[in-house]
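Module 6 notes. Inverse folding takes a fixed backbone as the condition and produces residue identities as the prediction. Think of it as a translation problem where the source language is geometry and the target language is the twenty amino acids. Below is one complete input and output pair. Work through it position by position during the lab.
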């Protein structure tokens, strides 16, 4: 029997500093889901496409997520352009 009200969750531990930052920055209802859903999709796409190589690069910290995750890379480029225009 499937519970039609069930909504899957993706749960992982964060540091207290990460929680404080998220609470201060992402305070509007639904922001976390709206932001982290697309990021998760991009990470899963990278892992499906490149497997262990993608996992290794992400875990090793040899590249910043904003450099390799497509949606974050685009946001970073647009954000930099906006700062330059100020």
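Target side of the pair, the amino acids:
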């Amino acid at each position: 029997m499937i519970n039609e009200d069930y909504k899957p969750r993706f749960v992982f531990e964060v540091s207290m500093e990460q929680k404080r930052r998220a609470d201060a920055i992402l305070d509007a209802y639904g922001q976390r889901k709206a932001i982290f859903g697309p990021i998760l999709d991009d990470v899963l796409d990278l892992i499906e496409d490149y497997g262990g190589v993608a996992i290794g690069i992400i875990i090793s910290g040899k590249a910043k997520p904003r450099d390799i995750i497509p949606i974050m890379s685009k946001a970073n480029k647009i954000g930099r352009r906006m700062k330059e225009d100020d």
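Reference fact for the lab report: Residues 31-50 form the longest helix (20 residues).
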